[in-house]
From TrEMBL:
Swiss-Prot/TrEMBL keywords: NADP
Protein's name in the database: NADPH:quinone reductase
Organism: Leifsonia shinshuensis
Residue ranges constituting the Enoyl reductase (ER) domain according to the UniProt record: 10-336
Pfam families cross-referenced by the UniProt entry: ADH_N (PF08240), ADH_zinc_N (PF00107)
Amino acid sequence: MKAVSYTSTGDSDVLVLGEREEPHPGDGEVRVRIHVSGVNPTDWKARQGGGPSDLPRAQVPNQDGAGVVDEVGAGVASVRPGDRVWVWDAAYQRPDGTAQELVVLPEAQVVPLPDDVSFDVGASLGIPALTAHRALTAYEGAAGELAPGTLDGRTVLVAGGAGAVGHAAIQLAVWAGATVIATVSSHEKAELARAAGAHHVVNYREPDTAEAIGALAPRGVDIVVEVNASANAELDTKVAARGATIAVYADAPGSTEVTMPIRPAMQKNLRWQFLLTYTVTPEAKAAAVRAVAAAAAAGALPVGAEHGLPLTRFPLAQTADAHDAVKDGAVGKVLIDVG
């Protein structure tokens, strides 16, 4: 079978297309024939590492993907050969990501995908949607699993509403009943955030961002889904409601620390929740998978430019170019056609 792998960390030229032996599932495992692999920033960052370093064995990149069940091991009950599925965290602490024709995963990491939900959607879930779900359920007293109505009466601010996580956060929050405000950096990205379903969009490059958000949410926002806390800590504190949660899921390039206004945050009893989808509790991850699967089945997580998430495609042989596109800030979602 064809697979892209690397044996040392470094720039994208360490990625090599080659042939590998077909894997077979053991007990409780599922083999999936990948049709589409999704690329996330975490994929190129893991591949790049801290500098050139030999790996103990070849690593296939990419955490997310979608395809068709090919074989199942003993004891597998949730899927069977021929089922359409999406997968998550394929390459986390494992050598086998989704940039290959066949991947074997534990049953829990293989999720049914309805016939009317495309492989493009399936490959775009994983890291972005599971991260967004945790951000939206991190506030005090939150329902641990999103569903229609669970965010009724809440106002959500999504920073970077045109990014993959921001896009998923908008869609999931709207599906769960929230009023959503998104911040963006351009008119073009504002249109993408609106297409995703944001009720209000604010260009943060224009003056008086806090005033604009405050006019839209006089009581303050209840949840902030934050992509750049280093730049936005003061803004988030200003626009937050009492008891709000600011959920931080990323750090900006070159920024490893955040300074926050302590006294104003104390006065509002704010909660700062830092999160990484790989290391959330098993219970939180399982709830996120269930909720994201339900939202996708309900048609709440579409992708494509008309839905606010433009797609950029590469063949498997150009996986290096796909990684570079994400590193260079491609707007929307980068996908690799594997099958």
